[in-house]
């Protein structure tokens, strides 16, 4: 029986260039929309670090890469203040859905997965800091159940529009997904257990 679920799993070191390519593709698309977000080469050092820390995830189905999302517990101190209880949240970064994927509401599924993960970690919130000048992105997050906390306008930062939604809240409507966790990879970038290389 064919499994039509999207698999969301940690990225392996050998997939760093896949994520970088998705980042660059997103930047080109944003440029075509007259949005100045991500108009610089993908930060491969950051991608490699996030993969090593098991913070970077990829979404696949039928062998095709559909998107990526990074989640961690880092609360940027320039944005999130002590009164925000920074440790009470999981933070999502660099969510990218490939335009070629053509899977409706894949972003919804990625955010639902991140929200579920936040709850499993005992967090109260799933949070994002979005590009300040990308109003459509802010509207998208609000459509996904996030509330606008505030916008921190620092001249040296492009991000700063802060949003959060309760951990464990599920919007639904996206594709079904199978969430897999992998503790580590071997020296060749192959998973040692937890998921099939064909996932």
UniProtKB/TrEMBL annotation:
Indicate the segments annotated as coiled coil, or none if absent: none
Which InterPro entries would you find in this protein's record?
A: Acyl_CoA_acyltransferase (IPR016181), GNAT_dom (IPR000182)
GO terms assigned for molecular function:
acyltransferase activity, transferring groups other than amino-acyl groups
Stored PROSITE patterns: GNAT
Q: Where is the N-acetyltransferase domain?
A: 6-168
Name by which UniProt lists this protein: N-acetyltransferase domain-containing protein
